[in-house]
Write a structure and sequence with these properties.
The protein is mostly helical. Helix content is about 70%, strand content about 0%. Helix 17 packs parallel to helix 20 and helix 25 packs antiparallel against helix 26. The longest helix is centred in the C-terminal third of the chain and has 37 residues. The protein is elongated, with a radius of gyration of 31 Å.
């Protein structure tokens, strides 16, 4: 079974004059499946280079078909119509699939046999290799029928396909990667849940991640086609992880993590593959504690910091490099969710780098602020909070608190996001530092006639208004649901609460926590200033107390029950003293 629709794209004259060129191998026979998404992928040409290494390619070319001459336009149109009819008759069913797999198996066996028989005479086994390559190209048609994927599994074809990733000729392995990328395309998988499950499970059982990574290690990216093969291999892995996100650790353990780190820090010019590697690293770190642990054990924190150090005084040169920088920052944020990586970040002088980036005012500043927030938050951030004050971090963070920088159009970050990170950092410092360093922090709020207290209250009223507006909207929605006879259940209440947090409640809670903390434990002049501004603006102590009570009731990210209860009691005691 072959796919004829790719030739239908030629005009009549080209069609009738077409001759296959064996030197470059026939192009992929599935062009009829092209869509706009394909434009985002590098174009891959199948190549067989072994002959070039040993003998002249002209010896292996098939005889060129004689060109038809003297045909009338009517005859050409008739041939074209016949081809269209034949193409419509070619439908892939179970029987046709079995024939294709049988042909594939035969050609695999034939190629292996010829390679064993003539290991030092590529001109004798190359014809079988060309035929194998053509058969792999023909299998692209299977991607048009994902409902037949389970037959691939039943015929044990998935195992045979994966074995071709280890073929001695990288052209064959690259062709196989190309096929796997199309078979695992997410849109295709979504067309048949049963077929998709069968295929992906079979690939995972065949240790496909490890085989793909082994193939990656032998590809030479200085050759364009092999560089494209690297890109497409990462595409296959991404497709599988998008369908089975919980298998990210499997990919990392089968060699993907070391490969990604090695490729990211390789001294090569920036290209699409380095960008893709940064994206893949962010994906596998996103929801897996095991991968974060492996990253730390492989000195991945140092690798990320070294790569990001490039951007402390220089902006990315283009949008692709900017995207890579953002990916690396995201990797760092995910990694810092593991306590052990906080220590590695501290020892690797990550705080100093982030502090420098905040002062330099380059594009990296916003992301450095986000990383700093992750490094300092929670009980695991105590050592980093202490070090941050030691390296004069207060001189960096408070100017950002006093004045929110204008949003960078290229990055697209909002003022609210910036303010949330800055406020969260100050709240973490208040929770985690002790003795002299804590006193230095509290004294900051009395400088310049309590200017920072004034700014704190300004932000309090800003976010109180934002949350008030969304609260009114939510109450209207609840009333509408009740009128329709629907009950507002617990999952609905949680959804409403998350909406309030995202609209500004989280920042408001942190602002009011800071307010209560500095009033209770700071210099005596702070609380009168807070009360004065509340009276001038018509503010309410009761509202602030209720915000902190709600905050205490929903304290998260604390693993032990004892620690959570202790934090709740601490917050409620601040409410009582206010």
């Amino acid at each position: 079974c072959t796919v004829g629709s790719s030739k239908m794209a030629l005009n009549v004259g080209e069609l009738l004059a077409y001759q296959p060129d064996r030197e470059s191998i026939a192009k992929r026979g599935h062009d009829d499946g092209d869509d706009d998404d394909e434009l985002d992928r590098p174009v891959r040409k199948a190549r067989i280079r072994d002959v070039d290494r040993y003998t002249a390619t002209s010896q292996l070319r098939r005889p060129a078909a004689p060109q038809p001459t003297g045909m009338s336009e009517e005859e050409k149109a008739g041939i074209l119509e016949k081809l269209e009819e034949d193409d419509e008759m070619e439908t892939l069913d179970e029987a046709a699939l079995k024939r294709m797999i049988l042909t594939f198996e035969k050609r695999v066996y034939r190629n292996q046999e010829m390679r064993i028989k003539y290991p030092d005479s590529p001109e004798k086994f190359m014809e079988s290799e060309l035929e194998l390559h053509d058969t792999i190209q023909e299998l692209h048609v299977v991607a048009t029928a994902p409902e037949l994927y389970h037959h691939l599994v039943e015929l044990n074809a998935v195992q045979s396909l994966c074995q071709m990733l280890n073929h001695e000729n990288t052209d064959i392995s690259i062709a196989l990667v190309d096929l796997l990328q199309e078979l695992t395309d997410v849109d295709t998988l979504n067309e048949s849940e049963e077929g998709a499950d069968a295929l992906i499970e079979a690939l995972l059982d065949a240790q496909v991640f490890g085989m793909l990574v082994t193939n990656l290690d032998r590809l030479d990216e200085s050759v364009k086609e092999e560089a494209d093969g690297v890109h497409n291999t990462l595409g296959v892995i991404e497709n599988i992880l998008e369908f089975k996100a919980d298998r990210a650790n499997d990919a990392a353990q089968q060699g993907l993590m070391p490969y990604l780190l090695k490729r990211i820090k390789a001294k090569m010019p920036f290209d699409a593959n380095k960008l893709y590697c940064s994206e893949m690293l962010a994906i596998i770190l996103q929801n897996s504690e095991e991968t974060r642990e492996q990253l730390g054990e492989l000195d991945g924190i140092d690798t990320l910091l070294q790569q990001l150090a490039t951007f402390k005084r220089h902006n990315p040169s283009n949008s692709e490099e900017l995207e890579m920088m953002e990916n690396l920052f995201d990797c760092l944020c995910s990694a810092l969710m593991l306590p052990a990586n906080r220590d590695r970040f501290l020892k690797g002088e990550g705080l100093q780098l982030m502090n420098l980036m905040l002062r330099e005012k380059k594009m990296s500043r916003n992301s450095a602020l986000k990383v700093l927030d992750h490094a300092l938050t929670g009980p695991e951030g105590v050592d980093n909070c202490t070090k941050f004050i030691d390296i004069l971090g207060l001189r960096t963070i408070f100017p950002l608190f006093m004045k929110t920088p204008k949003p960078n159009k290229k990055i697209g970050r909002m003022k609210e996001e910036h303010e949330e990170h800055v406020v969260s950092i100050i709240a973490s410092l208040l929770k985690n530092v002790k003795s002299n360093q804590r006193q230095r922090l509290l004294n900051k709020f009395t400088e310049a006639d309590h200017a920072k207290v004034d700014r704190l209250m300004e932000l309090h009223f800003k976010y109180l208004d934002k949350v008030g507006a969304v609260d009114v909207q939510i109450e209207r929605e609840k009333a509408a649901l009740r009128r329709q006879g629907e009950e507002v259940d617990e999952p609905m209440e949680e959804e409403f609460y998350l909406r309030r947090l995202n609209t500004g409640l989280f920042t408001l809670q942190l602002l009011d926590y800071i307010m209560l903390e500095i009033c209770s434990t700071g210099p005596a002049s702070i609380k009168p200033r807070v009360m004065q501004i509340l009276n001038l603006r018509g503010g309410s102590i009761k509202v602030i107390r209720n915000i902190i009570r709600e905050y205490a009731a929903n304290v998260g990210d604390i693993k032990s029950t004892e620690s959570k209860e202790a934090e709740q009691q601490r917050l409620l005691s601040l409410v009582d003293r206010f």
